[in-house]
Amino acid sequence: MSISDLFDSGFKNRNKGHFASIVRVAMENGHLSEEERHFLDKLANQLEISPEEYSEILANPMRYPINPPYLHTQRLERLYDLSRMVYADHVLGPKQKEILTRFALALGFTPGNVQYITDKALSLLVLGVDLDTFLFEMQHMNK
């Protein structure tokens, strides 16, 4: 096995773990709404999850390890990615804030400030900021 195969395999497994974590959050209430299913369809495509892997993960998301980001910056980067996906095309409609809040909690943000964080993240996306600006604004929001 070549180094590129190892990298591709590791990247693919991380994407599957990341997707499975999102599926767990989306299925917290025991089912997926039509909006959530559409969101997961788009996310699977972006993460290069095959239809077979998609079905497998939906059937048993607990089979895949959770890879929560340890560093605050990594959590913010993942929040940026998830916020962009939630905000894109308004796929989730009025549920976008609700599901982003659930994702933010799953990423390790505290219940005490999660509403502020999701509001700030969505407002930054409305402004069309890039990752660097997002990170800067989110890291300096209390200062």
UniProtKB/TrEMBL annotation:
Domain of life: Bacteria
InterPro entries assigned to the protein according to its UniProt record, in alphabetical order: TerB-like
SUPFAM superfamilies: TerB-like
Name the record gives this protein: TerB family tellurite resistance protein
Species assigned in the record: Flavobacterium macacae
